[in-house]
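Q: Here's a chain of 215 amino acids. Please give me its 3D structure as tokens.
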Amino acid sequence: MTIDVASLRKEYTKNGLHRKDLVDDPFEQFTRWFEEAVRTAGDQEPNAMTLATATKDGVPSSRVVLLKGVDDGFIFFTNYESHKALDLLSNPRAGLTFHWPWLERQVQVQGSVEKTTREESESYFRKRPLGSRLGAIISKQSSVIESRAALEKKLEELKKRYPQNAEPPVPDFWGGFRVIPVRIEFWQGRENRLHDRFLYTLGPEGNWRIDRLSP
């Protein structure tokens, strides 16, 4: 590698984060940060998040997915036969990381995972562009395929069956997951790598404790 990776460095100078700046509810705190990220994102994807999973034997993997809802958890959708889904079905725990570099912020989430209801999955599926819906139907996500051409041929065949304004059926193998957090950390970059970090931890009675962490 010709790039001196060790010399790559960015100083964080935009903001600080103080205990008085935080609200008691981590979901409300997340919403405030997320709305600011959306307003300032430009052509970035503020709802992109890294999803970390592990097999039942503890073999980890991660990938970037898109947040599609927040209620008492963080919701995303996928193929239930994909690598990540098989991990989650056998080991229903996950970690999420949101990174908004233009704000010098990160949010980390850890918690248990459950499937969304079928009604929730179907409702979101029908809101997707037709091309995305057809792509979900033909894709055996994470499986080995013959070629790109074979994939595109399947798509063209399906387009003939379902032209614009058509309503293709929601596949049984497609749906959502909800990550229900027990820990949520808010990270704000600071100079000299003395970052501000605050951790919300869910207590046994449903209350959230807030602690400042060392950077």
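Q: Can you summarize the key feature?
A: The mean pLDDT is 95.
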